[in-house]
C-alpha cells in the first residue's frame, strides 16, 4: 500500500460511490441546518416567480395598452412598476437566500472541520506512521473548504438556476408552446459550447491549481528551513525559484482567462444572437397580430433567463466533481477506525483487579511480548520483564534495537498481539483512558512545546492549579529559569518553544509529565540533545523521584542511567543483559561494557 493511500480515495472507488459518500457526509454536516434548505428552495421558487412575472407584465403593457392605444394610466403605471420591481424583488430574494445558504455552508464546514480534527485525534498511532502530515492538514483545511464550495456554488447556483430555468420554460410554454419547443431544441448547443470550453481550459486550470500548491509548498518549506536557507546564503536561488513558479502560475491563469475570453463568451454571444434571430424569424413567418408583439417581447426577455442559468449549471459540473472527490476524501478519513476505546466499564474491572490483587504488584510486568510493525519483520522477541514500583530502570541498546518500540507499547500506541503487559497488576487494555494518562507520563526525545505560555505548556489543558504547576516545575528544576523569564509562567514561549534553549525545553517537558503526578514516568532519550550541565539537572530531578515514581529511561547517553537500579540491554529486540551498572561492566565483552567504553572514549 503506498504511504498516502490511507488519505486519498482509492481510484477503485467509482464516481457513483464517491458521490454517495460525499452527499451523505454533506447531509450529516448540514443536519442541524436542514430547515434552512427547505426555506431556501421555497424562497428561490418565489424569486423565480417574480423573475418570470416581469416579461408577462411587459407583454400585458404592450398588448393591452400601448398597441391598442388603450391608455388606462393607473393600470399602466401598475404594470410598469410591476415590470421594474419584479426583477429587483427577485434579485433581493435571491441575495437573501445566498446569505442563508452561505451561513449554512460556513456552519457545515465548521462542523466538518471539528468532526475531522477530533476524529484525527482519536486515530491510532499506526495511522500516523503511514499518514503524510501535509496531506492530513489539507484534509482538514482545503478539502473541507472544497465542501463549502459544494454548498455555496454548486448547491446554490444549481438550485437557483434550475428553478429559474424551469419557471422560464413553463412561462414560455404558457405563451407559445411551439416556440418554446424550438428554443428547447436549440438549447443543448449551450451544453456543447460549455463542454468544449471546459475541455480547452482544463489543462490550464489543472496547471494553475498544481502551481498554486507549489507556491504554498515553497513558502512553507522556506519558512520552515529559514536558518538552513540563510546559513547557506540561498536566498537568491530560492527567490528566483519562487519567481519562476509564480510566473508560471500567472501564465496558466492567463491561459484560463483567454479560453474564457476567446471561446466561451463569443460563442455564447453568437448563440444568443442565433436564438434571437430564430425567434424573430418564426414571428416574421406569422401574420403578426397585436398580441404577437407582446409575446415576442416576452420571449426575447426570457431567452437570457434560459441561457444564463444553463451556463451556470454546466459550469458547476467541474466544481461539483472536484468537491465530490474532496468530500469523499474527507469521508474516507472519517471512516478510518479510531483507536480502541478504553471505556468507563473497564475502570470497574481495573479497580476490582487492583483491589483483588494480593500483595504489592510490580509497576510493570511484561510477559512473552512479541511485536512487529509489519508482518514478518519482528522488532521485539519474547520479551519478559518485571519492574518493581518506584524503581529507576535504564534501557540501552544499539539504534534500531527496539527501545522506542517498547515504550510505544507501554504507552498503548500499538496493540501487542502476542504476550501481555500489566501496570500495577492490571492488564494494559483494561485501564480506562483517563486513569491510564494519569498513571503514565512521557518525556519524549523532542519536547514538542506549544506556541503558548510556560504555564499552558505544563498544564496542557488539564486545568491544574498554579500550585500544582509550580510543584511540577520545581521537581523538574524548571521553576528558577521560568521565573527569570520576563513574565514568569505567563511568558509566551514562541512557536515550538523557540524562546528557550533545548535543555530548558526538555525541563518544561519533564515538568509537564510530572504535573500529572504519574506513578510511571517514561523518558525517551530525554537527554540526548542537552548539554552536560542540564543533564546533571535532569539527573538530579530523576534522583529526587527515586522510590516515589517508577522511572523507565531510554538513554543513548549512558551517564543518564549509570545510577539506575537496573539497566536493561536490548539487542535486536531481545534482552541480552540486565543488572546494575557495575554488574554489567563486569561482563567481559558484553554489549553494555562495549557501549560504555566507547562513549568514555569519545568524550575523553
Ligand atoms: N512506525 C514504525 N513502522 C515500522 N517500523 C518501525 C517503526 N518504528 C520503528 N520501526 C522499526 O523498528 C525497529 C526498532 O525501532 P525503534 O525505534 O524501536 O529502535 P530504537 O532502539 O528506539 O532506535 P533509536 O535508538 O535509533 O531510537 C527498527 O528497525 C525500525 O526501523
UniProtKB/TrEMBL annotation:
Source organism of the structure: Duganella zoogloeoides
Tell me the membrane topology, using the record's own terms.
Multi-pass membrane protein
Q: Tell me which UniProt keywords the record has, alphabetically.
A: ATP-binding, Cell membrane, Membrane, Nucleotide-binding, Transmembrane, Transmembrane helix
Quote the protein name from its UniProt record: ATP-binding cassette domain-containing protein
Output the superkingdom of the source species.
Bacteria
- Name its cellular compartments: Cell membrane
Which PANTHER family does this UniProt record tie to the protein? ATP-BINDING CASSETTE SUB-FAMILY B, MULTIDRUG RESISTANCE ABC TRANSPORTER ATP-BINDING_PERMEASE PROTEIN YHEH-RELATED
Keyword Iron listed:
no
Q: Does the keyword Membrane apply?
A: yes
Q: Which residues form the ABC transporter domain?
A: 364-597
